[in-house]
Amino acid sequence: MPLVEASLLEILACPACHAPLREDIEATELICTSADCGLAYPVRDDIPVLLVDEARRPA
To answer: For 25, 31, 49, 59, which has the most beta carbons within 10 A of its beta carbon?
Structure first.
């Protein structure tokens, strides 16, 4: 089951670098597709939390 609707995912972008986001269903996160950024934003109660302060930095 997708984390967010496909139509919403198409318009969402990383708040830090404005790159598109992709879903990581196992981690319940939206991941920035930029190689330079790569922030992972949590999805809580079916709501993406697109705050840079709440994002997980890439390992």
So the answer is: 31
What CA–CA distances, in Å, run from 29 to 16, 25, 39, 43, 48?
16, 7, 10, 5, 8
- Please, what's the b/e burial string for 4-40 (b: 16 or more CB within 10 A of its CB; e: otherwise)? beeeebeeeebebeebebebeeeeebbbbebeebbbb
% pLDDT > 90, the chain: 92
Place of tokens 């939390």: 49
Asked if the model's pLDDT at residue 58 lies above 90, the reply is: no
For 28-52, the three-class secondary structure string (H helix, E strand, C coil) is CEEEECCCCCCCEEEEECCEECCCH
